[in-house]
Specification:
By secondary structure, this protein is mainly alpha-helical. The protein has a domain at 17-41 and 91-197. 59% of the residues lie in helices and 3% in strands.
Length: 229
């Protein structure tokens, strides 16, 4: 049975709201992680476990270009990946074509989320986004892109092309081209606004502005004399 191709433009334009939503989702993930991690990326200063030597950590490092395994990252990756399937909980029918589209979109989304962390983080920005400046992106780079981004991009197109290769349905591949192009435009727009965010970030952390109460261990201990009075 031959698949009849529908007109591409109406379908592509119909996907734009979803692309904007996914970009906003990646942006929020990046902003939350900047608040959590600050300038210390890859959870290096978070209260989580950190492994390099066990076999499972070496497998993880092989798949992610030498990155160490932490307790934080598998969970956050799993949460974000499952969230891409949230429509299934509300009656969206599953299909292999849908799964290909979700997985292809997720690969690009993760790279977008990661890059926005650098782009907006006052400790980095585009100027410090290069090989040698980021210890956890210590694998090969292709120009200004770490190999993980390159791998995510080509794998996303490969997965998006599977319905076309198997059934002759190029709709998902055409949607993916539009999705990636729109993501790039939105990243460029965010880069223009990044200095404003970094200024606000530093303003909210100016000396003397923090109003949280001291933790119990930070309060001066009461002397025996004062305790008896």
């Amino acid at each position: 049975m031959t698949y009849t191709q529908p007109s591409s433009w109406p379908w592509t334009l119909a996907g734009l709201p979803g692309t904007f939503l996914l970009f906003a989702y990646a942006l929020l993930f990046a902003l939350v992680e900047i608040e959590i991690e600050g300038k210390h990326g890859w959870a290096v200063n978070l209260p989580t476990w950190f492994r390099r030597k066990p076999w499972y950590a070496r497998v993880y490092g092989f798949l992610l270009s030498g990155k160490p395994l932490t307790g934080y990252h598998p969970l956050i990756f799993l949460i974000s990946f499952l969230s891409f399937h949230i429509g299934l909980a509300f009656g969206q029918p599953w299909s292999w074509g849908l799964e290909a589209r979700l997985l292809a979109s997720y690969f690009v989304w993760v790279a977008t989320w990661d890059f926005l962390w650098f782009l907006l983080n006052p400790a980095f920005g585009w100027a410090r986004f290069h090989k040698g400046a980021i210890w956890w992106h210590n694998g090969p780079w292709l120009g200004r892109l770490p190999i993980d981004y390159v791998n995510a991009l080509w794998m996303s197109f490969l997965v998006a092309a599977l319905p076309w290769l198997v059934r002759g349905n190029s709709r998902h591949l055409r949607h993916h081209v539009s999705y990636v192009a729109t993501m790039l435009v939105l990243i460029a727009a965010t880069a223009l606004a990044a200095p404003l965010y970094r200024r606000w970030y530093n303003h909210m952390r100016r000396p003397g502005s923090d109003e949280r109460p001291p933790l119990p261990q930070d309060r001066p201990a009461r002397s025996d004399t004062s305790a008896m009075s």
